[in-house]
């Protein structure tokens, strides 16, 4: 096999690893103190002892809550093949009570090879769910309800939560409710009657520590030795990678990355970019890949938008800044035009444009989201009269003007004077 | 599972359609049309039959080499999974066309939907499902979609089914026809979903979770054979969400610089040297206003015609003297055109220039712009015109002045004795008036509008012209009552055509307040057509 096709295959392997959360978080399942083992113990004990239970998995987005849960479920389904059935709901899709019951019935039917009718009414579905719970309880089969985006279920009247948790209170049913949320106060959102039926178990998922990060990097990026790749290639690849990991600059890059966002998802996106830019001729990852990936993932959108602005749009932004500095209350297009005129009366230049041209530039700025209207309700008035506010700060504007490659001197003078 | 029928669209039969008898000619045509639309296959998910290679692709998009290579690297080799991408940049920077051309080059199947044409969730879902299920809306199925889908939960289930069937058929195709590979064969077994104009989704139902749902779609589906690409005009930080969402990977398309624009315009020109000297003169001033390709193109294309006027032969290569002469010729037109930038010529100007009828217009015809007429260019009834003027006055003047301006003589005698005010108070008054002007038109209740209207029309002289032919039989009183009876109707039609906007009601008084939305020029035009002395009634110090 040629080196390029080997490299391509390696790239495909790494990319599929990066897009597969189950693989990523399987490394965290080994230690006995991890969330994985706690969760596994809890669910398996409620399955074997035939009791009801509920738990919340909380943590910022991208820390592996769903992935760890999937790993636990995989193992449990292997261990207790016929004793578990899983129902998955998502807050984005099923926060409405009707939708949720319909989906629960559909999944129950799918699992038990029953016919599901789309015409079933809400009452039918509710009765069906209750009777299925009872039947499964009698057959010693546990139903696991997984509620993703749990905080969205807790909006409104919380009917679904109440009916689920209430159904669990009866002796015959055997169910476990697992809620997953990125809001750390998700249990505070519950109503009193729902909360009283909820066992206050919470598992907290946190971003990995430095050592964990190092282990994670090795777990993801090192090619497996017992795979179909030729041995020399794998050895060369892994050696180069291990050398990079010990490099100071690489450590700085990874630290820089985790200063703003230390979740695993962020790291995965960084690695994805680095792996996609792998040099196919040499077939090895290099430090430049990682450094390049850092700059593509850390963007400064407002400065980019400022660089895209034309000179007239910069004038408008500086006029708005001056109005803010003067503490004028009325800041709309007309007052900006007045300020623009006064600048040109003091420093006459060729950059004085007609009002309709300035209005168009103003609308371009609105599109770029460098300025926006102050309130959303004033749709009755035309664009010239509605008050606007700046969406960039003073230092950003200053920095943008400094790096703008043909910025007129007047603007620099004004900015310096404003301090 | 019950069999699902495609939703029946109830179509109203119009009189014409029910009256035409299907004769043999029509049915012949109809059957020909039906037989022309063959059913869609997977090959239709790929753009066109010819493929282009990488060099052609990069050359067709000057100055986008970096972005094209970045996107191709992120899309990766065939059949490798991908995290969601987010392509963003200003308007007309080539995001959509670049992405589509890249897919044409790679020959991979994709589903494209724009959030401008699919303006609510239901249409978006149905459009995607139609494309996935290879369903075409035509006469035989009554122009209905393949599946009816309103809620995200149904959408995800149907999407999963449709994607898995499509991917299975792709895998089957790959296995079968490995021996012969035609150019139109799709590559790979991954399907890419492209969502264009994503910034419009922010204005859809604000309380819905549409945006986080779309961003999390890849995670919810959990299918590695699907790739998701978002295209947006604004960057990711302008998408706010309470609890956040999974962030896609950003790819930025910067605006073109002046040098880039010059290269873009020089492409495919018949006489590059002449055009380049033209651009030397013209591009600089316009780029100070805007660097958007479409705006600059609209502005400079009429100027080029003007530039080449002096030359007999447009194939000539200009030397230095010719260049300076041409520059002097074009200079006044540039400064004029700068005031009118972004104006696309309207139809009357094109017709006039085609017929070369210059006698109607006086003065220099502005390039590509229709002259602003002193007259109104559309028709309004007299009552509506008076209402419009009353609304303008009510918005413009503060309410306290009404008594003095509109007395029983119709305001004609408002030349009261003016107290001589000191210079400082005059200045203060002027600045206050300026502020009032800048703040915009004020609101007024219905009663005030009708009072002003009544006052104005009672003294107006009615000149019977061709406007209201049916009233000429009645006298002045009859005209008055005829005018008053449909005032409220006229008011509601003015509101619906946005000459007057209806505001919210004041919580204390509970009445609806209106606001005039016309500019002073427009009001002057209307007043002039009625021979109404508008300036006498305007609030001025």
From TrEMBL, chain A:
- Pfam families with a match to the protein in the record: AAA, ORC4_C
Q: List, for all copies, the residue spans of the domain called ATPase AAA-type core.
A: 55-201
Q: Which InterPro entries match?
A: ATPase_AAA_core (IPR003959), ORC4 (IPR016527), ORC4_C (IPR032705), P-loop_NTPase (IPR027417)
Localisation: Nucleus
Which of UniProt's keywords are assigned here? ATP-binding, DNA replication, DNA-binding, Nucleotide-binding, Nucleus
Instruction: Tell me the GO molecular function terms.
Output: ATP binding; DNA binding
Q: Please indicate which superkingdom the organism of origin belongs to.
A: Eukaryota
Primary localisation category? nucleus
Task: Using the record's annotation, list all stretches that form the Origin recognition complex subunit 4 C-terminal domain.
Answer: 216-399
- One biological process GO term for this chain? DNA replication
**Entry-linked SUPFAM superfamilies:** P-loop containing nucleoside triphosphate hydrolases (SSF52540)
Q: Kindly indicate whether the keyword DNA-binding belongs to this entry.
A: yes
Q: Which Gene3D superfamilies is this protein grouped with?
A: P-loop containing nucleotide triphosphate hydrolases
What GO CC terms are in its UniProt record?
Answer: nucleus
What function is annotated for this protein? Component of the origin recognition complex (ORC) that binds origins of replication. DNA-binding is ATP-dependent. The specific DNA sequences that define origins of replication have not been identified yet. ORC is required to assemble the pre-replication complex necessary to initiate DNA replication.
Q: Which PANTHER family match?
A: ORIGIN RECOGNITION COMPLEX SUBUNIT 4
- Similarity-based family: Belongs to the ORC4 family.
Task: State the name under which the record lists this protein.
Answer: Origin of replication complex subunit 4
**Native source organism of the sequence:** Forsythia ovata
TrEMBL record, chain B:
Positions in coiled-coil regions: none
Listed Pfam families: AAA_16, ORC5_C
Domain Origin recognition complex subunit 5 C-terminal stretches: 380-538
Can the keyword RNA-binding be found in this entry's annotation? no
**Domain Orc1-like AAA ATPase: where?**
61-216
Q: Where is the composition biased (Basic and acidic residues)?
A: 426-436
Source taxon at top rank: Eukaryota
> Polar residues bias: where?
1-10
| Record keywords | ATP-binding, Nucleotide-binding
State the residue spans of region: Disordered: 1-32, 404-437
**What family is this?**
Belongs to the ORC5 family.
Q: What is this protein called?
A: Origin of replication complex subunit 5
Q: Which organism is it from?
A: Forsythia ovata
**Highest classification ranks of the organism:** Eukaryota, Viridiplantae, Streptophyta, Embryophyta, Tracheophyta
């Amino acid at each position: 096999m040629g080196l390029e096709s080997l490299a391509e295959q390696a790239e495909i392997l790494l990319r599929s690893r990066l897009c597969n959360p189950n693989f990523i978080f399987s490394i965290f399942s080994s230690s006995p103190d991890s969330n994985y083992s706690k969760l596994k113990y809890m669910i398996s004990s409620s399955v074997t002892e035939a009791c009801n239970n509920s738990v919340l998995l909380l943590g910022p987005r991208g820390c592996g809550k769903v992935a760890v849960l999937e790993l636990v479920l995989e193992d449990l389904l292997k261990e207790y093949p016929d004793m578990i059935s899983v129902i998955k709901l998502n807050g984005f899709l099923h926060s409405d009570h009707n939708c949720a019951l319909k989906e629960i019935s559909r999944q129950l039917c799918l699992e038990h090879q029953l016919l599901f009718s789309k015409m079933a009414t809400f009452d039918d579905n509710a009765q069906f769910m209750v009777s299925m719970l009872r039947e499964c309880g009698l057959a010693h089969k546990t139903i696991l309800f997984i509620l993703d985006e749990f905080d969205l279920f807790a909006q409104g009247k919380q009917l679904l939560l109440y009916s689920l948790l209430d159904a669990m209170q009866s002796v015959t049913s055997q169910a476990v409710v697992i809620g997953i949320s990125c809001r750390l106060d998700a249990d505070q959102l519950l109503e009193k009657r729902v909360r009283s039926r909820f066992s206050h178990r919470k598992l907290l998922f946190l971003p990995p520590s430095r050592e964990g990060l190092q282990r994670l990097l090795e777990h993801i990026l090192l090619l497996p030795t017992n795979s179909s790749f030729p041995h020399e290639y794998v050895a060369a690849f892994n050696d180069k990678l291990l050398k990079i990991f010990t490099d100071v600059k690489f450590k700085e890059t990874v630290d820089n990355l985790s200063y703003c966002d230390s979740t695993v998802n962020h790291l995965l996106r960084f690695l994805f970019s680095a792996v996609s830019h792998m040099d196919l001729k040499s077939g090895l990852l290099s430090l430049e890949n990682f450094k390049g990936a850092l700059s593509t993932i850390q963007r400064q959108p407002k400065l980019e938008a400022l660089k895209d602005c034309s000179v007239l749009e910069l004038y408008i932004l500086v006029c708005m800044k001056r109005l803010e500095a003067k503490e004028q209350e009325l800041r709309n297009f007309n007052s900006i035009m007045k300020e623009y005129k006064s600048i040109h009366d003091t420093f006459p230049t060729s950059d004085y444009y007609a009002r309709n041209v300035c209005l168009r530039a103003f609308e371009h700025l609105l599109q770029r989201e460098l300025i926006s209207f102050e309130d959303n309700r004033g749709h009755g008035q035309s664009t010239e009269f509605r008050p606007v506010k700046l969406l960039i700060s003073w230092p950003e504007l200053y920095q943008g003007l400094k790096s703008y490659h043909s910025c007129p001197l007047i603007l620099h003078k004004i900015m310096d004077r404003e301090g | 599972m019950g069999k699902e029928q495609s939703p029946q669209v109830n179509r109203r039969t119009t009189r014409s359609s029910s009256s035409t008898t299907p004769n043999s000619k029509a049915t012949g045509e109809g059957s020909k049309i039906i037989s022309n639309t063959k059913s869609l296959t997977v090959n239709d998910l790929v753009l066109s039959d010819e493929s282009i290679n990488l060099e052609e692709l990069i050359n067709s998009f000057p100055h986008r080499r970096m972005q094209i290579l970045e996107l191709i690297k992120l899309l990766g080799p065939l059949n490798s999974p991908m995290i969601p991408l987010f392509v963003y940049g200003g308007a007309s920077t080539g995001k959509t066309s670049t992405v589509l051309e890249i897919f044409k080059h790679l020959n991979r199947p994709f589903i494209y939907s724009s959030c401008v044409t699919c303006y609510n969730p239901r249409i978006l879902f149905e459009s995607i499902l139609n494309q996935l299920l290879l369903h075409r809306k035509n006469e035989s199925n009554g122009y209905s979609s393949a599946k009816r889908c309103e809620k995200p939960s149904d959408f995800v289930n149907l999407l999963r089914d449709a994607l898995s069937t499509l991917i299975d058929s792709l895998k089957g195709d790959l296995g079968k026809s490995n021996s012969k590979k035609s150019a139109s064969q799709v590559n790979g077994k991954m399907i890419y979903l492209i969502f264009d104009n994503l910034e419009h989704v922010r204005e859809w139902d604000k309380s819905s979770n549409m945006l986080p749902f779309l961003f999390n779609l890849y995670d919810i589906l959990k299918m590695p054979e699907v790739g998701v690409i978002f295209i947006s005009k604004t960057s990711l930080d302008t998408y706010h969400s309470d609890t956040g969402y999974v962030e896609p990977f950003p790819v930025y398309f910067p605006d073109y610089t002046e040098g880039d624009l010059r290269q873009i315009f020089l492409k495919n020109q018949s006489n590059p040297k002449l055009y380049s000297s033209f651009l030397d003169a013209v591009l600089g001033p316009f780029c100070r206003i805007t660097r958007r390709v479409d705006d600059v193109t609209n502005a400079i294309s009429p100027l080029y015609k003007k530039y080449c006027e002096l030359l007999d032969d447009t194939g000539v290569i200009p030397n230095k003297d010719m260049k300076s002469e041409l520059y002097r010729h074009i200079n006044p037109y540039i400064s004029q055109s700068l005031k009118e930038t972004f104006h696309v010529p309207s139809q009357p100007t094109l017709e006039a220039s085609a017929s070369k009828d210059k006698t109607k217009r006086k003065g220099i015809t502005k390039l590509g712009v229709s002259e602003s007429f002193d007259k109104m260019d559309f028709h309004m009834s007299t009552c509506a015109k008076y209402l419009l003027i009353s609304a303008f006055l009510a918005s413009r003047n503060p309410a306290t002045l009404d008594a003095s301006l509109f007395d029983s003589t119709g305001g004609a005698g408002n030349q009261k004795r003016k107290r001589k005010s000191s210079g400082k108070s005059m200045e203060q008054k002027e600045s206050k008036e300026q502020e009032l002007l800048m703040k915009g038109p004020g609101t007024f209740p219905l009663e005030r509008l009708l009072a002003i209207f009544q006052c104005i029309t009672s003294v107006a002289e009615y000149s019977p012209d061709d406007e209201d032919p049916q009233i000429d039989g009645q006298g002045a009183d009859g005209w008055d009552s005829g005018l008053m009876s449909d005032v409220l109707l006229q008011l509601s039609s003015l509101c619906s055509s946005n000459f007057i906007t209806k505001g919210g009601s004041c919580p204390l008084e509970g009445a609806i307040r209106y606001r005039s939305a016309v500019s002073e020029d427009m009001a002057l035009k209307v007043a002039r057509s009625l021979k109404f002395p508008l300036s006498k009634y305007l609030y001025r110090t």
